[in-house]
Task: structure prediction
Amino acid sequence: MARPKRLKLIGEEGFFHITSRTVGQEFFLGDVEKEKLFNIIKYYSGYYFVKPIGLTVMDNHFHLLIKSEPESYYSDDQVKQRIAEYRDKKKKKEKVKEEDWDWEEEGDGEISYNELQRIKTQMADISEYVRAIKQTFSRWYNKMNNRSGYLWGDRFKSVLIEKGEALINCLAYIDLNPVRAKIVKRPEDYRWSGIGYRIYTDNKGDFLSFDGIFSESEMKDHPKEELLQCYRYFVYKCGNIKRLSLADIEEGIAVGNVKSVIDNETYNHELMRDFKLPKGEIMLGRIRYFSDGMVIGSKKFLKEAYAKFAGEIIRKKDRNVYQTGINRNILSLRRLAC
Result:
């Protein structure tokens, strides 16, 4: 049976909810793997014509909400600049070998007009975008774990979402995933989620957009702290609603006997402070996020630690040194999402 054609928009922008699961829904994604996948998504989101709005990386799947943009939004010069920036080894944000990234070499010479148009079309294709993410991660994962074969299950799923009410509900659904799985009580407490990234990194690099969630005038007239406060209110409100599943309805379970995703105590606590996060709590969150960095300190200290513990304790995939964001002299021997 032929696979159904994927829904795509040609020549116009659109919002898509993308999901992909591991083969057999195996729990392949531990902390290091989630971190790697999160950063690969960040990397390719700067190359393809997409604006990420939300994402969550779980143990055996990921959710990604994006705004796709048509190639007509970008001039040839902008595309050439993007190609140059993201294929220059010296400008790569991740210290990985070139063969670990899914690039087709275009050469160092001038790109012909026809070739440039082909690349532009590819950059606007969400299938190419997701393929690059999944292939790059699969190669890295198999290499680090000395395995071969498929890592991802069926083709990724994509759903076209209307901006506005449908889009913000989809974004809340994505950010509430770790709470539904009972991993955390508050959605922002999950390290590999969009809402966590927005809060504890101050949306570093403007990685995540609120396009389609708020209007252009709202985003222009209100500081990002207010927009985030408004969005947190919506997420907690959605999470505190008691919802009946189809199975609940079939079993005759009453709404009063169903638990909400976010419990009343947590919801009321955030409501009392008007869904604002004090600066002190944000800073504590940043430090907590980096507390899982294996070794934290100066570059000299990290190098000494790696020399002592390289091998079984500190594995090859944890060997790089990264900025923590606490201050410029405090580094980590394992990069976390914030």
Notes: Residues 294-332 form one domain. The chain has two domains: 14-213, 294-332. DSSP finds 13 helices and seven strands in the chain. The longest helix spans residues 126-144.
